[in-house]
Amino acid sequence: MKLHFFEEPELEFGRGSHIDIRFGLMQHGPLDYDTSLAPKKIRVGIVGTNETISGVCAWLEKCRSEISPKDSKKPNLFPYFPGFNPEDSFQSELVFDSSLQRPLPPANLKRLLQNSAPNQIVREAVELYLNDLRYLAENTNADVLLCAHPTELLDKIENAESMANVETSQTSPDDDDGPVHGERLVFHDMLKAEAMSQVRKPLQIIRPTTWDEKARRQQKRKANRIQSLQDEATRAWNIHTALYYKAGGVPWRLIRDPALLTTCYVGISFYVSLDKETVMTSMAQVFNQRGEGVIVRGGAAQISKEDRQIHLKRSDACTLLRNALGRYRDEHRTLPARVVLHKTSSFNTEEIAGFNEALDEKGIDYHDFVSISTSQTRIFRHGTYAPLRGTMLSLSDKQHLLYSKGSVDFWQTYPGLYIPNPRLIRCDETTESPSFLAQEIMALTKMNWNNTQFDGALPITLRAARQVGLILRYIPEGGHIEPQYRYYM
Fold first, then answer.
1. pLDDT for 292
2. pLDDT at 368 (0 to 100)
3. What is the signed CA dihedral for 73, 24, 254, 247, rounded to 10 degrees?
4. What does residue 16 show for φ and ψ, rounded to 5 degrees?
5. In terms of Cα–Cα distance, which of 122, 235, 119 is closest to 188?
6. So what's the pLDDT on residue 168?
7. Which end of the chain is flanked by fewer CB atoms within 10 Å, N or C?
8. Can you give the pLDDT at residue 220?
9. Checking DSSP bridges between strand 144-148 and strand 41-48, what pairing results, if any?
10. CA distance 166 to 415
11. What are 43-99's pLDDT values in tens digits?
């Protein structure tokens, strides 16, 4: 066994680089700030009640100026928000005037709140929002559509989601072992799925605790939520970064050494159809270091009798990667020199043969097939803090433990609530060294445009693929699928 430590990878912003997303944006601006593609004005359509629309608009107006940081001895972990305006950080502004707003019909909302059938509540809530989202998409020039929940509706939806089929559980995109499954309907995922064909605009769902201090005080009284509430500056960073990306902006990207091969990163995840009849494959393809994702939907997968893990047949593996590389060529007018595949289950012989067949067809000589899962084996460090993020223990030539979550020197702390588990990295068939692949995974954990705290547990390849699977369960075979990741996050 051998222990390694990797320094925190830097990201590239508009005028320089930094290891931290928020400080990088403050000091250097977004990657595309001086290009014609940067969204200088982002028109935000809002659907909600009159009260929630007013509350969201007041908070977004406040966020045009500086938001003070959390009172903390860790200023690098809790920086201030400089304001979202043409002069600071993002060098962009939000437009959310009354012509871009659509109140939910009070009578329809009242009728929904009186319903008691769990899955029917979710269906009716989705349709309630879709009616007004469609109107804004068809009659305004909104770039992003925002759904502002009233507290009573959010409580109704969450209660319905928890009551329906309580024997199943909806996992988060960071829970990376096993397929996405379950019969219960989830409002967030179902709404985004239906909006693919009916709205065709990126959606942002915003909770009352984001802008409403009264809702935050009520939430704090729920013991299981006390620790999950973010400070106001952090909320402002996360919401505005997501809106910037969903409006077509590129906040940051990986730093690429020009001497290295042009690489395409691919994440593969699995989901079970709503009728629980079929295990399907979802894929989020991340275009090289720029990080723009294109979604490719795969075919059926099976649970192997040999290792009880989910695997693809050789022909399905070949088709999946062939289609992904075709999408890559459409975007870049060329093929990558190297392909990296990330998967949560190990690569079996059939999958390796199928993926290699697709690579051989395209004349791609360099590839790395890496499986990433949670390990229960832990490393202990002297003192009270968790191991440093970037610590890797090599168990063998092919198996390695990597702490993608852990203590961070820049923050002078470990920011988590629980002792972190390392990731088990299995190099199933690789051309690069384990150290190179681990540092690559570390960098890819920082490509999450939904969270500006950079210590993500999973690389964006797997996080995006799993998040896509949560939504694809609601889209029938042949249904419209948006190719860009901004529609799924």
1. 67
2. 98
3. 110
4. 170, -165
5. 122
6. 36
7. N
8. 61
9. parallel
10. 31
11. 999 999 999 999 999 999 999 999 999 999 999 999 999 999 999 999 999 999 999
Strand ranges of the sheet holding 338-343, from the earlier edge strand across to the other edge:
2-5, 391-394, 399-402, 423-429, 366-374, 338-343, 263-272, 279-287, 292-303, 310-311
d(CA 306, CA 299): 21
The tokens for 202 are 């990126």
Six-digit token string for 362: 């395209």
The pLDDT of residue 332 is: 80
- What is the pTM assigned to this prediction? 0.92
479: its two tokens: 């249904």
Q: How many Å separate Cα 292 from the centre of its chain?
A: 12
The predicted-structure confidence for 1-46, as pLDDT tens digits, reads as follows 889 999 999 999 999 999 999 999 999 999 999 999 899 999 999 9
Task: Return the pLDDT at 283.
Answer: 81
Task: Look at phi and psi of residue 182 and say left if phi exceeds 0, alpha if psi is from -120 to 50, else beta.
Answer: left
What token pair was written down for 364?
């791609």
State the Cα–Cα distance between residues 359 and 339, nearest whole angstrom: 8
Please answer whether residues 337 and 258 qualify as being in contact, where contact means their C-beta atoms are separated by less than 8 angstroms: no
Tokens 């931290």 found at: 20
Distance (Å, whole) CA 341 – CA 417:
31
Helix spans in 297-346 (H): 314-332
Low-confidence ranges of the chain (pLDDT < 70): 164-183, 217, 219-228, 287-293
Please tell me the number of Cα atoms within 13 Å of 181 on its side-chain side. 13
Phi-psi bin for 359: left (phi > 0), alpha (psi -120 to 50), beta?
A: alpha
Which contacts (CB < 8 Å, 24+ apart) does range 431-435 have?
A: 431/338, 431/366, 431/367, 431/368, 432/368, 434/392, 434/394, 434/397, 434/400, 435/4, 435/6, 435/392
d(CA 11, CA 20): 8
Residues 85, 87, 92, 95: is their CA dihedral positive or negative?
Answer: positive
Q: Are 447 and 286 in contact (CB under 8 A)?
A: yes
What is the torsional sign of CA 80, 86, 90, 96? positive
Helices (H) and strands (E) in the chain, counts: 13, 18
Q: What residue type is assigned to position 421 of the chain? A: N
Query: Phi first, then psi: what are they for 212, rounded to 5°?
Result: -110, 110
